[in-house]
Design brief:
The complex is a heterodimer. By secondary structure, chain A is an alpha+beta fold. Helix content of chain A is 20%, strand content 28%. In chain A, a hairpin with a 7-residue loop joins strand 41 and strand 42. In chain A, helix 4 packs across helix 5. Chain A is elongated, with a radius of gyration of 37 Å. The N and C termini of chain A lie far apart (93 Å). In chain B, the strands form two sheets. Chain B has a four-stranded antiparallel beta sheet, with no helix packed on it. In chain B, strands 1-2 form a two-stranded antiparallel ribbon. Classes of the chains: A alpha+beta, B mainly beta.
Amino acid sequence: MSGHRLDSGGVVDRTATRRFTLDGQQLEGFAGDTVASAALANGVVRVGNSIYRGRPRGVLTSGVEEPNAFVRSEGGYGESMLPATTAELLDELRLTWEDGIGTLDQSVDPAEYDHMHIHTDIAVIGAGPAGLAAARAAAATGVRVTLFESDFALGGSLLGRPNEVVEGVPAAAWIDDVREQLEDAPNCRILTRTSVFGSYDSNYLTALEKRVDAPVKDGVSRQRVWHVNAGRVVLATGAFERTLVFANNDLPGVMLASAAQHYLGRYGVLAGDRIVVFTTNDSAYPVAADLAAAGARVTLVDSRAEAGVDDPASVEVRHGSVVVEAVGTDQLESVRVAAAGGDPTEAQEISCDLLAVSGGWSANVNLHSQRQGALHWDDALVGFVPSGSVRDQALAGSVTGTYWTDGVVAEGVAAGAGEPAPLSDAERAAGSGHTDALWLIPSPDGEFDTHFVDLQRDETAAGVVRAVRAGMRSVEHVKRYTSISTGLDQGKIGGVLTIGVLSQLLGEHDMAAVPVGQPGQEEDTPAPPKPSPGTIGTTTFRAPFTPVAFAALAGRHRGELYDPARLTPAQARHVERGAEFEDVGQWKRPWFYPQDGEDLDAAVDRECRAARTNVAYMDGSTLGKIEVRGKDAPAFLNRIYTNAFAKLPVGKQRYGVMCRPDGMVFDDGVSFRLADDRYLMTTTTGGAAGVLEWLEEWHQTEWPELDVFFTSVTEQWSTTVVAGPRSRDVVHKIAPDLDVSKEGFEFMTFHDTVLASGIPARIARVTFSGELAFEVNVSGWYGEAVWDDITEAGAEFGITPYGTETMHVLRAEKAFPIVGQDTDGTVTPHDLGMDWVVAKKKKDFIGMRSYARAGHVEEGRKQLVSLFPADKELRLPEGSQIVATADAPAEPIDGFAAEPIPMLGHVTSSYRSAALDRTFALALVRDGRSRIGEQVMASFGGRFFPVQIAEAVVYDKEGARRDG
Amino acid sequence: MLMIDCPHCGVRPEGEFTYGGQAHVPYPEDPHTLTDEEWAQYLFYRDNPKGAFRERWVHSAGCRKWFNAVRDTRTYDITSTYVGAAPSDTNTTQGAQS
């Protein structure tokens, strides 16, 4: 047992005991503890084992950069991989250590998560000394300030150094004082437990708040994502201390020096009694002093011959020495110390229960780099530091490479007030003293497979050697070859260690293969550059800075709130009829109406027969509808559609196809001419919004001189289709004033009338099934009423509703294409067999020029045809590939074909036809129309099935059925 | 998340807009007088400079009007937004902060 709680000290609340269970053991801590500090206080040394090698591990850090100590929290949410070093100790936590990997709780998360959107003039990120000083200075100018701190307490690293003097007072008092000022300021908001994880253009930030202190009840969110629009951002995100790379550096009992100091100063926990402090720089000297003052026996091992500060009292100091090995079975028992640069086998053993390591500091530049903020390697500081700030941002504190308190406070004040940074690079380096660049420490046995560089990924210097031997040169390749820095800690410590080791492994001749463009890489170096972290650079920093649960990102957009559901006016009737629904965009459309336990196939078969032999009705309200109005509406439509609309008589409608300038079909629909200057255009359901944008784009950007405007009226009209040989009878009943005879109501015309029920209606004779059909259009308010009218009127004829699946089958039998299903942006009207829809006499329309392009005139274009499988009941999956019979292998293929097989086309739509009593498909096939009668093969699942190519239209080729 | 100064509505977040590619590429006067190659240039080729770029945006979730912007493709700073023809530098209106 090594760690224990001292009788006094720390900012924990010793009057508020917190009980918790850790791996079944009942323990106690205080309010203000983290799980790690409370565990250490109870003498816990080992945490979970390492992920792949199962090695014993201990707490390395006191913050987000922790690679070892992860707990799973049982209870309401089985939340895994919580760093113990940041997890707030709450009462009655039930925790278990995890071996580097989490387990997903399979139960539905009952908690709520929400999002907030705010504007702030200044966002200060980090409430350590620099951030607190910045927030105070900013608030004093009167602007809106928001201070973000991921910890539950303010103060950052200062919390571990309560007696350090800041602006003349002890740090603990200084923190309290500034906090009170900020809390009293009406223009300042403090968000603790809130970690800024993403930084984006225009100073848009995303942050995750863990609302641990919120009451647990309905309507109260457990976590909150903040979306912040900031005028200015101050990054006061601090720096991470690095460990060092020596044999067995992952033993429990090896900890960062600053962490040992933090556990002492903030939590009153002395993590060991016999401590060795191993350092390359001055920052560990005050740590050694604090630990000795708390009663530990401390030996300080400094790799440097000389320090920039005096040896601390009561501490044995060994200059020019390095730890070459940590020794112990399951935890630290001793270290072996040798001369820096000397023979690692000539080492002295020092018994100890804690090794506090300071391998230098890595500025926490993640958010700066997310905005492509420039970095460079500083040889004096031995770290990557920012080269100036991003526009409308400022950097303050140890994130700039300033590692002494007066300096960070001065930077904070300047940044908060919007003044220039007070320190130069030279002043910064001078203030921090000399740091040794100590990467790969020699190994007593010559092996490097316990010289860990990434503890979370269980990767060692031996792994980096393997990567280099395999030819990896770029740090991005080494990362992916070894998985270094891909863990939960994202290489916050291990990244720079790896780059440092890499700089020792690569020779000058290797550098030619290191590509440019990494953050922190020097530009304008002589080629090839000397290997150093500065010429190698670092990997790209990406959001999120720390993990964010998907549930938090989803916020309230779950379940019914995931996407708006667009419902038609007759929705209730479809539900009452037992319809199964499908989503078409955000619309809920009846897919089929099963009766008496029918499955999809049985229902569709019945609905199809009804539509072709009797009468059936369908809700067509979802199709896009746009009014196109103005003196120049006719001319405009003539340019937009491939066919003629300017001379369409009032009272008639016409099917039109819309293409992009490249000639490819992009939408289709029927347009009505309501008046000389007024049309009602219909579009596909899914294409409505896109078509409206298209019309606006051409009008606003190309033809603003045309007098025309557009109004979306999709929801203003409800449409019910009545189809089938007996549809005339039904329509006659609901619209007795209308002449619905064959002579009185021409195909592709419409008439306004008033229904028997008194509802004004526009009835059109148009068909998507090929049968005699009418579309009854009424104001959306009457949609349900008209559905009821038709239900009642059709009852004596046995009318049945049909859904989208039946609609698809019926139109496919007639080879009416569905844009987006039978087309994919590479298909022209000619490919679809619709030469007739492309005007020959127009001066121009969108797409016209493209039909003269070589690629459109040549043979080999895919054309719409139908396919009949030799097996009459085989339904080809949509997407099945079509190949020549001669090219198909004799045996099914498992995996990949030996040689690529040329693809002739693919199946776009596939159904069983009630009318033909067999299956069929539509397909796009090269030169399809010239291949009618040929047998080819359709392939899916590695197998090949014979199919015969036929004309696209498989039913009622003469089109006689549409007149009833 | 860019903040874009719509000439009609003022500064609004990027999510309210749809990108429209390079600006000032007019539909050809008479496409039928162009060779296949010239027509393909109009259809498929657009500039991709590193630096200031004149591009189109439409305020889809707002006024639904098209406008142009000058944006630096490296830093994403939008220096101006305007309607109509490319102004000379002295006439360029001030855009939003980026």
